[in-house]
Amino acid sequence: MGRPSRRADALSRERIIAAAITILDTEGERALTFRTLAATLATGPGAIYWHVANKKELLAAATDALVAEATGAGPTRATPHERIRRVALGLFDTIDAHPWIGSQLSQEPWQLASMRIVEALGRPLDDLEVPAERHFHVVTALASYVLGAAAQNAANARHAPRDTDRDTALSAIARQWAELDEAEFPFVRRIAAQLPGHDDREQFLAGIDLVLGGITRE
Amino acid sequence: MGRPSRRADALSRERIIAAAITILDTEGERALTFRTLAATLATGPGAIYWHVANKKELLAAATDALVAEATGAGPTRATPHERIRRVALGLFDTIDAHPWIGSQLSQEPWQLASMRIVEALGRPLDDLEVPAERHFHVVTALASYVLGAAAQNAANARHAPRDTDRDTALSAIARQWAELDEAEFPFVRRIAAQLPGHDDREQFLAGIDLVLGGITRE
DNA sequence: ACCTGAACACCGTTCAAGT
DNA sequence: ACCTGAACACCGTTCAAGT
Fold first, then answer.
1. pTM for the full model?
2. Pairing with A72, which of A176, A215, B18, B122 sits 20 to 30 Å away (CA)?
3. Domain ranges of chain B
4. Which residue in A106, A152, A213 is closest to B155 by CB distance?
Protein backbone atom coordinates (compact mmCIF):
# COMPACT_ATOMS: atom_id res chain seq x y z
CA MET A 1 0.00 0.00 0.00
CA GLY A 2 3.03 2.28 -0.26
CA ARG A 3 2.45 5.36 -2.37
CA PRO A 4 3.88 4.88 -5.85
CA SER A 5 6.93 6.79 -6.99
CA ARG A 6 6.34 9.20 -9.78
CA ARG A 7 9.18 7.91 -11.90
CA ALA A 8 10.10 4.26 -12.27
CA ASP A 9 13.77 5.10 -12.02
CA ALA A 10 13.35 7.26 -8.94
CA LEU A 11 15.85 6.76 -6.16
CA SER A 12 14.75 4.63 -3.25
CA ARG A 13 16.30 2.95 -0.25
CA GLU A 14 15.80 -0.42 -1.88
CA ARG A 15 17.48 0.55 -5.12
CA ILE A 16 20.40 2.06 -3.25
CA ILE A 17 20.89 -1.07 -1.15
CA ALA A 18 20.63 -3.31 -4.20
CA ALA A 19 23.19 -1.24 -6.07
CA ALA A 20 25.49 -1.29 -3.06
CA ILE A 21 25.29 -5.09 -2.85
CA THR A 22 26.15 -5.39 -6.52
CA ILE A 23 29.21 -3.19 -6.13
CA LEU A 24 30.33 -4.99 -2.98
CA ASP A 25 30.00 -8.38 -4.64
CA THR A 26 31.61 -7.55 -7.94
CA GLU A 27 34.19 -4.92 -7.08
CA GLY A 28 34.87 -5.55 -3.40
CA GLU A 29 34.47 -3.57 -0.22
CA ARG A 30 36.99 -0.93 -1.12
CA ALA A 31 35.12 -0.08 -4.30
CA LEU A 32 31.94 0.93 -2.51
CA THR A 33 32.05 4.70 -2.46
CA PHE A 34 29.30 7.24 -2.33
CA ARG A 35 30.70 8.59 -5.55
CA THR A 36 30.76 5.29 -7.43
CA LEU A 37 27.40 4.41 -5.95
CA ALA A 38 25.99 7.74 -7.07
CA ALA A 39 27.47 7.26 -10.53
CA THR A 40 25.84 3.82 -10.80
CA LEU A 41 22.51 5.33 -9.83
CA ALA A 42 23.06 8.27 -12.17
CA THR A 43 22.85 10.91 -9.50
CA GLY A 44 25.03 12.91 -7.12
CA PRO A 45 26.48 11.62 -3.85
CA GLY A 46 24.31 13.95 -1.84
CA ALA A 47 21.11 12.38 -3.12
CA ILE A 48 21.90 9.09 -1.38
CA TYR A 49 21.90 10.79 1.99
CA TRP A 50 18.24 11.58 1.61
CA HIS A 51 17.44 7.86 1.82
CA VAL A 52 20.25 6.51 3.95
CA ALA A 53 21.77 8.08 7.06
CA ASN A 54 25.39 7.19 6.33
CA LYS A 55 27.70 4.47 5.08
CA LYS A 56 27.48 2.43 8.26
CA GLU A 57 23.73 2.26 8.01
CA LEU A 58 23.96 1.37 4.35
CA LEU A 59 26.26 -1.57 5.08
CA ALA A 60 24.05 -2.71 7.93
CA ALA A 61 20.98 -2.61 5.71
CA ALA A 62 22.73 -4.53 2.93
CA THR A 63 23.87 -7.15 5.43
CA ASP A 64 20.42 -7.43 6.94
CA ALA A 65 18.78 -7.93 3.56
CA LEU A 66 20.97 -10.92 2.75
CA VAL A 67 20.87 -12.45 6.22
CA ALA A 68 17.09 -12.16 6.28
CA GLU A 69 17.00 -14.08 3.02
CA ALA A 70 19.36 -16.74 4.33
CA THR A 71 17.55 -17.31 7.62
CA GLY A 72 14.01 -16.92 6.32
CA ALA A 73 11.56 -19.72 5.70
CA GLY A 74 13.10 -23.12 5.12
CA PRO A 75 11.11 -26.37 4.94
CA THR A 76 10.42 -27.25 8.51
CA ARG A 77 9.77 -30.97 8.74
CA ALA A 78 13.19 -32.16 9.84
CA THR A 79 14.95 -33.04 13.06
CA PRO A 80 16.07 -30.08 15.20
CA HIS A 81 19.66 -31.06 14.61
CA GLU A 82 19.06 -31.06 10.88
CA ARG A 83 17.32 -27.69 11.04
CA ILE A 84 20.24 -26.11 12.85
CA ARG A 85 22.65 -27.55 10.31
CA ARG A 86 20.51 -26.16 7.53
CA VAL A 87 20.44 -22.64 8.94
CA ALA A 88 24.15 -22.69 9.66
CA LEU A 89 25.03 -23.93 6.21
CA GLY A 90 22.76 -21.37 4.61
CA LEU A 91 24.57 -18.62 6.47
CA PHE A 92 27.92 -20.10 5.55
CA ASP A 93 27.05 -20.13 1.87
CA THR A 94 25.63 -16.61 1.99
CA ILE A 95 28.76 -15.25 3.62
CA ASP A 96 30.88 -17.21 1.19
CA ALA A 97 29.04 -15.63 -1.71
CA HIS A 98 29.19 -12.16 -0.16
CA PRO A 99 32.43 -12.13 1.84
CA TRP A 100 32.00 -8.54 2.97
CA ILE A 101 29.14 -9.72 5.23
CA GLY A 102 31.73 -11.55 7.31
CA SER A 103 33.49 -8.48 8.55
CA GLN A 104 30.20 -6.64 8.80
CA LEU A 105 28.63 -9.13 11.19
CA SER A 106 31.55 -9.12 13.58
CA GLN A 107 31.52 -5.36 13.73
CA GLU A 108 27.91 -4.47 14.49
CA PRO A 109 26.74 -6.90 17.12
CA TRP A 110 23.25 -6.01 18.27
CA GLN A 111 22.06 -5.17 14.81
CA LEU A 112 19.02 -6.79 13.24
CA ALA A 113 21.05 -9.32 11.27
CA SER A 114 22.60 -10.83 14.40
CA MET A 115 19.18 -11.15 15.93
CA ARG A 116 17.91 -13.04 12.94
CA ILE A 117 20.80 -15.44 13.28
CA VAL A 118 20.18 -16.01 16.97
CA GLU A 119 16.49 -16.55 16.28
CA ALA A 120 17.06 -19.04 13.48
CA LEU A 121 19.69 -21.03 15.35
CA GLY A 122 17.79 -20.95 18.61
CA ARG A 123 14.30 -21.90 17.58
CA PRO A 124 15.07 -25.62 17.15
CA LEU A 125 16.48 -25.86 20.66
CA ASP A 126 13.06 -26.42 22.20
CA ASP A 127 12.68 -29.63 20.25
CA LEU A 128 16.22 -30.67 21.06
CA GLU A 129 15.23 -31.05 24.69
CA VAL A 130 17.64 -28.43 25.88
CA PRO A 131 16.33 -26.97 29.13
CA ALA A 132 15.13 -23.40 28.74
CA GLU A 133 17.64 -22.01 31.24
CA ARG A 134 20.45 -23.07 28.97
CA HIS A 135 19.00 -21.61 25.77
CA PHE A 136 20.82 -18.30 25.99
CA HIS A 137 24.04 -20.09 26.72
CA VAL A 138 23.75 -22.58 23.93
CA VAL A 139 22.59 -20.23 21.23
CA THR A 140 25.45 -17.88 22.03
CA ALA A 141 27.95 -20.69 21.57
CA LEU A 142 26.36 -21.76 18.30
CA ALA A 143 26.24 -18.23 16.94
CA SER A 144 29.83 -17.54 17.95
CA TYR A 145 31.01 -20.63 16.14
CA VAL A 146 28.98 -19.90 13.02
CA LEU A 147 30.06 -16.28 12.84
CA GLY A 148 33.68 -17.09 13.60
CA ALA A 149 33.92 -19.84 11.03
CA ALA A 150 32.09 -17.85 8.40
CA ALA A 151 34.23 -14.77 9.02
CA GLN A 152 37.40 -16.82 8.67
CA ASN A 153 36.14 -18.35 5.49
CA ALA A 154 35.11 -15.01 4.09
CA ALA A 155 38.52 -13.59 4.86
CA ASN A 156 40.13 -16.50 3.07
CA ALA A 157 37.90 -15.95 0.08
CA ARG A 158 38.77 -12.27 0.04
CA HIS A 159 42.50 -12.88 0.19
CA ALA A 160 42.75 -15.73 -2.25
CA PRO A 161 44.69 -14.65 -5.32
CA ARG A 162 42.39 -14.33 -8.27
CA ASP A 163 44.35 -16.29 -10.80
CA THR A 164 45.32 -19.39 -8.83
CA ASP A 165 42.81 -22.10 -8.06
CA ARG A 166 41.97 -23.32 -4.59
CA ASP A 167 44.09 -26.45 -4.61
CA THR A 168 47.34 -24.79 -5.54
CA ALA A 169 46.65 -21.97 -3.09
CA LEU A 170 46.09 -24.43 -0.24
CA SER A 171 49.16 -26.41 -1.19
CA ALA A 172 51.23 -23.26 -1.12
CA ILE A 173 50.05 -22.45 2.39
CA ALA A 174 50.57 -26.04 3.51
CA ARG A 175 54.14 -25.91 2.25
CA GLN A 176 54.65 -22.66 4.14
CA TRP A 177 53.28 -24.19 7.34
CA ALA A 178 55.51 -27.23 6.97
CA GLU A 179 58.54 -25.00 6.89
CA LEU A 180 57.81 -23.22 10.15
CA ASP A 181 60.19 -23.40 13.06
CA GLU A 182 59.79 -26.80 14.70
CA ALA A 183 60.38 -25.46 18.19
CA GLU A 184 57.79 -22.71 17.92
CA PHE A 185 55.10 -24.29 15.74
CA PRO A 186 55.24 -28.08 16.07
CA PHE A 187 51.49 -28.49 15.96
CA VAL A 188 50.87 -26.30 12.92
CA ARG A 189 53.68 -28.10 11.11
CA ARG A 190 52.07 -31.44 11.77
CA ILE A 191 48.59 -30.52 10.59
CA ALA A 192 49.87 -28.83 7.43
CA ALA A 193 49.43 -32.06 5.54
CA GLN A 194 45.70 -32.06 6.28
CA LEU A 195 45.18 -28.63 4.77
CA PRO A 196 45.04 -29.43 1.04
CA GLY A 197 42.05 -31.33 -0.15
CA HIS A 198 39.75 -30.53 2.73
CA ASP A 199 36.24 -29.33 2.02
CA ASP A 200 35.30 -26.04 3.67
CA ARG A 201 31.62 -26.80 4.00
CA GLU A 202 32.25 -30.26 5.40
CA GLN A 203 34.74 -28.84 7.86
CA PHE A 204 32.22 -26.21 8.87
CA LEU A 205 29.45 -28.74 9.41
CA ALA A 206 31.78 -30.98 11.38
CA GLY A 207 32.28 -28.08 13.77
CA ILE A 208 28.53 -27.63 14.10
CA ASP A 209 28.21 -31.31 14.95
CA LEU A 210 30.93 -30.92 17.53
CA VAL A 211 29.04 -28.15 19.29
CA LEU A 212 25.73 -29.96 18.99
CA GLY A 213 27.45 -33.06 20.31
CA GLY A 214 28.47 -31.10 23.37
CA ILE A 215 24.94 -29.80 23.80
CA THR A 216 23.10 -33.08 23.71
CA ARG A 217 25.78 -34.90 25.60
CA GLU A 218 24.46 -35.22 29.10
CA MET B 1 73.08 -8.33 18.80
CA GLY B 2 71.33 -5.65 16.75
CA ARG B 3 73.40 -2.58 16.04
CA PRO B 4 72.52 0.20 18.46
CA SER B 5 70.61 3.27 17.31
CA ARG B 6 72.49 6.49 17.55
CA ARG B 7 69.80 8.34 19.41
CA ALA B 8 67.70 6.86 22.16
CA ASP B 9 64.60 8.51 20.77
CA ALA B 10 65.25 7.35 17.22
CA LEU B 11 62.29 5.95 15.34
CA SER B 12 62.02 2.18 15.20
CA ARG B 13 59.49 -0.40 14.19
CA GLU B 14 58.98 -1.29 17.83
CA ARG B 15 58.37 2.26 18.96
CA ILE B 16 55.91 2.82 16.11
CA ILE B 17 53.97 -0.34 16.96
CA ALA B 18 53.91 0.54 20.65
CA ALA B 19 52.65 4.03 19.91
CA ALA B 20 50.00 2.63 17.58
CA ILE B 21 48.76 0.24 20.27
CA THR B 22 48.49 3.08 22.74
CA ILE B 23 46.44 5.16 20.35
CA LEU B 24 44.21 2.23 19.41
CA ASP B 25 43.56 1.40 23.05
CA THR B 26 42.96 4.89 24.33
CA GLU B 27 41.42 6.71 21.38
CA GLY B 28 39.93 3.89 19.30
CA GLU B 29 40.48 2.53 15.83
CA ARG B 30 39.28 5.61 14.06
CA ALA B 31 41.85 7.75 15.82
CA LEU B 32 44.83 5.84 14.46
CA THR B 33 46.10 8.00 11.64
CA PHE B 34 49.53 8.34 10.15
CA ARG B 35 49.30 11.99 11.04
CA THR B 36 48.34 11.50 14.70
CA LEU B 37 50.84 8.68 14.96
CA ALA B 38 53.54 10.89 13.47
CA ALA B 39 52.60 13.71 15.84
CA THR B 40 52.87 11.36 18.82
CA LEU B 41 56.30 10.30 17.65
CA ALA B 42 57.27 13.89 16.92
CA THR B 43 57.99 13.33 13.25
CA GLY B 44 56.31 13.52 9.86
CA PRO B 45 53.95 10.90 8.43
CA GLY B 46 56.44 9.95 5.75
CA ALA B 47 59.03 8.82 8.32
CA ILE B 48 56.79 5.97 9.46
CA TYR B 49 56.84 4.46 5.99
CA TRP B 50 60.55 3.85 6.31
CA HIS B 51 59.89 1.28 9.05
CA VAL B 52 56.44 -0.02 8.15
CA ALA B 53 55.10 -0.86 4.71
CA ASN B 54 51.59 0.51 5.20
CA LYS B 55 48.70 0.73 7.63
CA LYS B 56 47.59 -2.86 7.10
CA GLU B 57 51.01 -4.16 8.03
CA LEU B 58 51.11 -1.88 11.03
CA LEU B 59 47.81 -3.23 12.33
CA ALA B 60 48.91 -6.81 11.68
CA ALA B 61 52.14 -6.24 13.59
CA ALA B 62 50.32 -4.64 16.51
CA THR B 63 47.89 -7.55 16.62
CA ASP B 64 50.67 -10.09 16.44
CA ALA B 65 52.57 -8.49 19.29
CA LEU B 66 49.61 -8.78 21.64
CA VAL B 67 48.54 -12.25 20.51
CA ALA B 68 52.10 -13.53 20.92
CA GLU B 69 52.05 -12.26 24.47
CA ALA B 70 48.68 -13.88 25.16
CA THR B 71 49.56 -17.28 23.74
CA GLY B 72 53.16 -17.42 24.92
CA ALA B 73 54.47 -19.41 27.85
CA GLY B 74 51.90 -20.41 30.44
CA PRO B 75 52.56 -22.88 33.24
CA THR B 76 52.28 -26.26 31.65
CA ARG B 77 51.44 -28.79 34.34
CA ALA B 78 47.69 -29.00 33.90
CA THR B 79 45.18 -31.21 32.16
CA PRO B 80 44.87 -30.70 28.37
CA HIS B 81 41.34 -29.48 28.89
CA GLU B 82 42.55 -26.98 31.43
CA ARG B 83 45.35 -25.82 29.16
CA ILE B 84 42.94 -25.16 26.31
CA ARG B 85 40.65 -23.23 28.61
CA ARG B 86 43.59 -21.18 29.80
CA VAL B 87 44.72 -20.24 26.31
CA ALA B 88 41.19 -19.42 25.22
CA LEU B 89 40.52 -17.27 28.24
CA GLY B 90 43.82 -15.47 27.80
CA LEU B 91 42.85 -14.60 24.26
CA PHE B 92 39.41 -13.55 25.37
CA ASP B 93 40.83 -11.18 27.96
CA THR B 94 43.39 -9.78 25.54
CA ILE B 95 40.76 -9.05 22.92
CA ASP B 96 38.51 -7.61 25.59
CA ALA B 97 41.29 -5.25 26.66
CA HIS B 98 42.16 -4.35 23.05
CA PRO B 99 38.86 -4.61 21.16
CA TRP B 100 40.38 -3.57 17.84
CA ILE B 101 42.17 -6.95 17.73
CA GLY B 102 38.77 -8.56 17.26
CA SER B 103 38.07 -7.09 13.88
CA GLN B 104 41.72 -7.43 12.93
CA LEU B 105 41.83 -11.17 13.47
CA SER B 106 38.76 -11.85 11.39
CA GLN B 107 40.14 -9.81 8.54
CA GLU B 108 43.63 -11.19 8.00
CA PRO B 109 43.35 -14.94 8.24
CA TRP B 110 46.68 -16.58 7.47
CA GLN B 111 48.66 -14.01 9.34
CA LEU B 112 51.12 -14.89 12.08
CA ALA B 113 48.67 -14.12 14.87
CA SER B 114 46.16 -16.72 13.67
CA MET B 115 48.90 -19.30 13.49
CA ARG B 116 49.89 -18.63 17.07
CA ILE B 117 46.30 -19.18 18.10
CA VAL B 118 46.02 -22.44 16.20
CA GLU B 119 49.30 -23.62 17.69
CA ALA B 120 48.35 -22.75 21.25
CA LEU B 121 44.89 -24.30 21.03
CA GLY B 122 46.09 -27.36 19.16
CA ARG B 123 49.12 -28.43 21.14
CA PRO B 124 47.13 -29.95 24.01
CA LEU B 125 45.14 -32.15 21.62
CA ASP B 126 47.79 -34.86 21.63
CA ASP B 127 47.28 -35.40 25.32
CA LEU B 128 43.53 -35.29 24.93
CA GLU B 129 43.66 -38.54 22.99
CA VAL B 130 42.21 -37.02 19.88
CA PRO B 131 43.40 -39.04 16.89
CA ALA B 132 45.87 -37.14 14.73
CA GLU B 133 43.66 -37.26 11.65
CA ARG B 134 41.08 -35.17 13.44
CA HIS B 135 43.49 -32.54 14.73
CA PHE B 136 43.02 -30.12 11.84
CA HIS B 137 39.30 -30.50 12.11
CA VAL B 138 39.12 -29.99 15.83
CA VAL B 139 41.54 -27.09 16.07
CA THR B 140 39.64 -25.28 13.34
CA ALA B 141 36.41 -25.61 15.27
CA LEU B 142 38.02 -24.43 18.47
CA ALA B 143 39.67 -21.46 16.80
CA SER B 144 36.46 -20.48 15.02
CA TYR B 145 34.57 -20.48 18.26
CA VAL B 146 37.23 -18.53 20.12
CA LEU B 147 37.62 -15.93 17.41
CA GLY B 148 33.88 -15.61 16.86
CA ALA B 149 33.08 -15.21 20.53
CA ALA B 150 35.94 -12.83 21.12
CA ALA B 151 35.01 -10.72 18.09
CA GLN B 152 31.42 -10.47 19.26
CA ASN B 153 32.54 -9.49 22.70
CA ALA B 154 34.97 -6.93 21.35
CA ALA B 155 32.24 -5.43 19.20
CA ASN B 156 29.99 -5.19 22.24
CA ALA B 157 32.74 -3.49 24.19
CA ARG B 158 33.32 -1.04 21.36
CA HIS B 159 29.67 -0.12 21.06
CA ALA B 160 28.79 0.14 24.70
CA PRO B 161 27.93 3.72 25.60
CA ARG B 162 30.68 5.21 27.71
CA ASP B 163 28.59 6.68 30.46
CA THR B 164 26.26 3.81 31.32
CA ASP B 165 27.42 0.76 33.22
CA ARG B 166 27.14 -2.80 31.98
CA ASP B 167 24.05 -3.78 33.93
CA THR B 168 21.86 -0.96 32.75
CA ALA B 169 23.11 -1.39 29.19
CA LEU B 170 22.23 -5.09 29.22
CA SER B 171 18.86 -4.39 30.78
CA ALA B 172 18.12 -1.87 28.06
CA ILE B 173 18.89 -4.41 25.35
CA ALA B 174 16.90 -7.08 27.15
CA ARG B 175 13.90 -4.76 27.27
CA GLN B 176 14.32 -4.10 23.58
CA TRP B 177 14.45 -7.82 22.82
CA ALA B 178 11.36 -8.48 24.91
CA GLU B 179 9.42 -6.00 22.82
CA LEU B 180 10.19 -7.65 19.49
CA ASP B 181 7.45 -9.01 17.28
CA GLU B 182 6.26 -12.28 18.79
CA ALA B 183 5.62 -13.88 15.41
CA GLU B 184 9.04 -13.08 14.01
CA PHE B 185 11.30 -13.36 17.06
CA PRO B 186 9.72 -15.72 19.59
CA PHE B 187 13.01 -17.26 20.62
CA VAL B 188 14.89 -14.01 21.12
CA ARG B 189 11.98 -12.67 23.15
CA ARG B 190 12.10 -15.65 25.43
CA ILE B 191 15.83 -15.56 26.13
CA ALA B 192 15.81 -11.80 26.75
CA ALA B 193 15.34 -12.44 30.45
CA GLN B 194 18.63 -14.36 30.60
CA LEU B 195 20.62 -11.48 29.17
CA PRO B 196 21.11 -9.25 32.23
CA GLY B 197 23.34 -10.58 34.94
CA HIS B 198 25.25 -13.08 32.85
CA ASP B 199 29.01 -13.16 33.02
CA ASP B 200 30.80 -12.84 29.69
CA ARG B 201 33.83 -14.87 30.66
CA GLU B 202 31.74 -17.64 32.18
CA GLN B 203 29.57 -17.71 29.07
CA PHE B 204 32.66 -17.89 26.92
CA LEU B 205 34.17 -20.75 28.91
CA ALA B 206 30.87 -22.61 28.84
CA GLY B 207 31.08 -22.53 25.06
CA ILE B 208 34.61 -23.90 25.17
CA ASP B 209 33.39 -26.72 27.34
CA LEU B 210 30.61 -27.40 24.89
CA VAL B 211 33.06 -27.80 22.03
CA LEU B 212 35.45 -29.85 24.14
CA GLY B 213 32.51 -31.96 25.23
CA GLY B 214 31.78 -32.70 21.60
CA ILE B 215 35.42 -33.57 20.98
CA THR B 216 35.88 -36.05 23.76
CA ARG B 217 32.43 -37.47 23.37
CA GLU B 218 32.94 -40.70 21.55
C1' DA C 1 9.71 16.22 -1.03
C1' DC C 2 13.53 15.13 -3.33
C1' DC C 3 17.70 15.91 -6.06
C1' DT C 4 22.20 18.34 -7.50
C1' DG C 5 27.04 19.02 -7.18
C1' DA C 6 30.42 22.02 -5.33
C1' DA C 7 32.87 22.41 -1.08
C1' DC C 8 34.77 21.00 3.56
C1' DA C 9 37.57 18.42 6.39
C1' DC C 10 39.72 14.88 6.32
C1' DC C 11 42.42 10.24 4.80
C1' DG C 12 46.72 6.89 3.14
C1' DT C 13 50.59 7.22 0.52
C1' DT C 14 54.44 9.17 -2.30
C1' DC C 15 58.54 11.60 -3.15
C1' DA C 16 61.85 15.29 -3.87
C1' DA C 17 64.74 17.30 -0.83
C1' DG C 18 67.40 17.34 3.10
C1' DT C 19 70.89 15.37 6.95
C1' DA D 1 70.49 5.28 6.03
C1' DC D 2 67.01 7.75 7.71
C1' DC D 3 63.93 11.74 8.20
C1' DT D 4 60.97 15.85 6.60
C1' DG D 5 56.74 17.77 5.05
C1' DA D 6 54.45 19.35 1.06
C1' DA D 7 51.62 17.37 -2.43
C1' DC D 8 48.58 13.85 -4.79
C1' DA D 9 44.60 11.33 -5.21
C1' DC D 10 41.33 10.16 -2.94
C1' DC D 11 37.44 9.66 0.97
C1' DG D 12 32.54 10.53 3.81
C1' DT D 13 29.57 14.09 4.60
C1' DT D 14 27.28 18.70 4.36
C1' DC D 15 24.57 22.19 2.45
C1' DA D 16 22.98 26.04 -0.35
C1' DA D 17 20.57 26.00 -4.32
C1' DG D 18 17.50 24.12 -7.39
C1' DT D 19 12.91 21.45 -9.10
1. 0.92
2. A215
3. 1-52, 53-217
4. A106
